[in-house]
Amino acid sequence: MGYIRLYGQFLRVAILGKVQYKADFFVGIVSVLILNAVNLSLIGILVYNFNTLGNWNIWDLMFLYSFWMLSRGIYGVFFWHLSDLEEMIVNGTFDAYLVRPVSPFLQFIGKDISYTGVGDFLVGFLGFILAGTQIKLQWNAGQWIYFVICVLSGALIQVAINWVGASLCFWTTRSGAAVSIAERFTVLMQQYPVNIFGRYFQIFVTCFLPVAFINYYPSVVLLHKAEGGLQIWQYFSPLVALLMLVIAAFIWTKGVGRYAGTGN
Amino acid sequence: MIEVKRLTKEFKIPVQKKGQFAAIRNLFSGEYTVKHAVDDISFSVGDGEIVGFIGKNGAGKSTTIKMLSGILQPTSGSITVDGIRPFEQRMENAKQIGVVFGQKTQLWWDVPLIESYRLLREIYKIDTAVYQKNLDRYIPMLGLEEVINKPVRQMSLGQRVKSDICAALLHSPKILFLDEPTIGVDVVSKKYLHDFISEINSEKGTTILLTTHDMGDIEKLCSRVVVIDSGHLMYDGDLESMIARFGAVRSLMIEFEKPVPDFEIENAELTRSEGNRKWFSFHRSKATPLHLVHAIDDRFPIQDIAIIEPDIESIVRNLYESS
């Protein structure tokens, strides 16, 4: 409880810091809008050119993409700066977190906030409304709750992937390349339903780098897209998120321990 | 307050290969050399002492500070800081220490200084009355009134370091570690820092350990010095006996009424000659300036004299050379 309050205090300072750069703030907001206008038209092209992909029609695809954007927005606002860790280790500013009586992760996560995520979230929200009306979603309360939980889980899976990626620099000092490959891979594949790819690819994005749980499996569940009946594990996004966070926290803790050993 | 016994810190440094595809072979090479950044050092610091750590770059000063503050894990040996083992009990240790790295700020860069302090109050759970009392006392002492609402990024280096030191003391720590606090700081700010550090030490009894290259810091602040070189402890004792042992050679500058030829004199050595001026060095125990001046004045009329005490740089140099 104390930590949540403290995190709030950190965020307050992070937001204050952002507002200090007024010009940058406005340029940032404008560029977020432009970026997302481009994103939206890309979805438009997608929708126009593929009438269907497998058993997914254009509005299903839009739902899938919007689902990802919603989760990416939440991840982006609060965790975009995970990749700053590399720089902090190289220039030694990470040391400051180790001489204060609060978890280093909390201090690191609380140091910044990013408004580009807000744009992603808004695009996701608009896309979801549009696709939802076209698909004529008729969900009961349980499905709505599951939807919200899965959007959050999707955000947390992305947090976990980038958290692991960032933690790698405790060993390698530089981990930017690995993280950006994972990021590009995620960006590329989140726009398509996983079942249009080959079997090995499906196994990979389900078991090894479980990005299919960010938006694909929740969409399969919520839009009834399962071929040959729903499998129980297709509901598992929240569990996958939880498991990945545990793994990420473990790697982070090991990494901080290693940092104390080598000092860099 | 601080007990350090047989402290050692080794770093493994990968061996850099040369030749074809060196970068790729380095990537997969498991070879490394072991560097002893700190090698079998023992010392203790009493309650309320100010101890200065001196040594060249890479001597192991910062590594020692990092181990004392819990950032780095010792390879072997033991440390207790007021009964707490800094690395194993990092959080406990953090509550009772304040740390300032002169080269990098720990404050929030983009927000007014006071916002950093408010956040630190939350982080350390500082009692509101204590926080306000410390703030009211330290801000005027350090001359921070005009920057308290300024973001750190707009501050001069001197202002920034003063702000950092104030930040490190808000939670009234028992021990303060200062890693090169005056590096690059202007003379006026330096004086503020010296006065402030001595005052905190005498008023609150805060134990202070500082590393520095600036001998002015040592002369102003420390009664005791620890000299480290390549990870080894070279000297640990009070400043006066270090000066007596390794700073026994003083200099005498004499300005004559008119140019005179070089000459020899008993118990002193002519070291430099320039226009009307000559410099002689002499050992503290063998001659006094007065006796030398008399002896010289008998031969050539003297216009002016100056006695030059050895500076700490030269003392440390002597110390290095003697080992």
Automatic annotation (TrEMBL), chain A:
<keyword id="KW-0812">Transmembrane</keyword>
<feature type="transmembrane region" description="Helical">
    <location>
        <begin position="200"/>
        <end position="223"/>
    </location>
</feature>
<protein>
    <recommendedName>
        <fullName>ABC transporter permease</fullName>
    </recommendedName>
</protein>
<feature type="transmembrane region" description="Helical">
    <location>
        <begin position="113"/>
        <end position="132"/>
    </location>
</feature>
<dbReference type="Pfam" id="PF06182">
    <property type="entry name" value="ABC2_membrane_6"/>
</dbReference>
<feature type="transmembrane region" description="Helical">
    <location>
        <begin position="62"/>
        <end position="82"/>
    </location>
</feature>
<keyword id="KW-0472">Membrane</keyword>
<feature type="transmembrane region" description="Helical">
    <location>
        <begin position="25"/>
        <end position="50"/>
    </location>
</feature>
<dbReference type="InterPro" id="IPR010390">
    <property type="entry name" value="ABC-2_transporter-like"/>
</dbReference>
<feature type="transmembrane region" description="Helical">
    <location>
        <begin position="235"/>
        <end position="253"/>
    </location>
</feature>
<feature type="transmembrane region" description="Helical">
    <location>
        <begin position="144"/>
        <end position="165"/>
    </location>
</feature>
<keyword id="KW-1133">Transmembrane helix</keyword>
